[in-house]
Amino acid sequence: MTKTTTKIKYTRHSQEYKDHALELAKQVGIAKCARQLQLHESQLYTWRKNAQHKASITQRESSLACENVLLKKELARAREELAIAKKAATYFAKQLS
Fold it and tell me: What 8-state DSSP symbol labels residue 13?
């Protein structure tokens, strides 16, 4: 008994194609878009989920970047205040002796 295996050919779609397909799916619906482009509906759902995840990561990264800038400014101000306090402590220590 010989077993014959057939290789399944997978098509890789470019990001531009996926974006175009998702835009079409927004306009006409997933099922109709899948039929028009000869894709499985599950592919479109997966592409949409990945696009939404990518967008949420981008939003999160930008909010973290803004927070990082604010924290750096606050740290710089705190360091400056600490340096001033050290100078004042040194000055008053000299005055007392």
Answer: P
The residue segments making up the domain with residue 28 are 15-96
Question: Locate tokens 């759902």: which residue?
Answer: 45
4 lies in some domain? no
**Rounded-to-10 torsion of CA 18, 19, 23, 26:** 60
Does residue 22 lie in a domain region? yes
pLDDT tens digit string along 23-71? 999 999 999 999 999 999 999 999 999 999 888 888 889 899 999 999 9
53 burial type by CB count under 10 A (0-12 exposed, 13-18 middle, 19+ buried)? exposed
| pTM for this model (two decimals) | 0.56
Is the residue at 36 inside a domain?
Answer: yes
Q: How many domains does the chain have?
A: 1
Q: Residue 53 and residue 37: Cα distance in Å, rounded?
A: 23
